[in-house]
Amino acid sequence: MADILYKYKDSVYANITNKCNCSCTFCIRSLKDGVGSADTLWHQQNPTTDEVLNAIRNYDFEGFDELVFCGYGEPTCALETLLAAAKVAKEEKNLRTRLNTNGLGNEENGRNIVPEIAKVIDAVSISLNAPDSKKYSEVTRPKYDGAFDKMVDFATKCKEEIKDVKWSIVDVLPEEDIAKCKALSESTGIKLRIRHFT
């Protein structure tokens, strides 16, 4: 089995599924098998909820105060595992929890999942990737029609129930696109983090 938990920079990450509803042109999955301390993040078979919970319970988090749900798949594609794992991380390990997501979890699960994740997730980082629907579809190649608007709606719903919500983009976007992303951030009141592309 691939690593369920791995260290990257100053955080511990939970790789709970390889399933994803996007096929991003820049996805690191197409470049290498692992990240950080993980030799491989490719699960031959996605871990069960119990396997993820056992990994968290048996992991030494000394020196770390946060668990980030982010691996080689979209965490909300394994929603029940995500919710159970975040609950254990908070209640049994006293960790802050963060969800890194593409923001299409409502579409994936056929309902508004924000009230559920708000109970166990302290922070949400949503990959904005592009400033408008056309460019977003070209870059992320999502499974769903109208994905950009659905992602924005998800972000807005998160902002209503979770204190720490951010969009993220990488600094390789054209300056014009970055400016448009900043404008969207200001109009929605959702912070924008510009990450360095590695």
Automatic annotation (TrEMBL):
One Pfam assignment: Radical_SAM
Entry-linked PROSITE patterns: RADICAL_SAM
Keyword Lyase in record: no
Coiled coil: none
Keywords of this entry: 4Fe-4S, Iron, Iron-sulfur, Metal-binding, S-adenosyl-L-methionine
Keyword Iron-sulfur among UniProt keywords: yes
Lineage: superkingdom: Bacteria
InterPro entries for the chain: Aldolase_TIM (IPR013785), Organic_radical-activating (IPR034457), rSAM (IPR007197), rSAM_sf (IPR058240), rSAM_TatD-assoc (IPR023821), rSAM_TatD-assoc_bac (IPR023822)
Molecular-function annotations in GO: 4 iron, 4 sulfur cluster binding; catalytic activity; metal ion binding
Cofactors demanded by this protein: [4Fe-4S] cluster
Location of the Radical SAM core domain: 6-198
NCBIfam families: rSAM_pair_X, tatD_link_rSAM
Protein's name in the database: Radical SAM domain-containing protein
Organism: Butyrivibrio hungatei
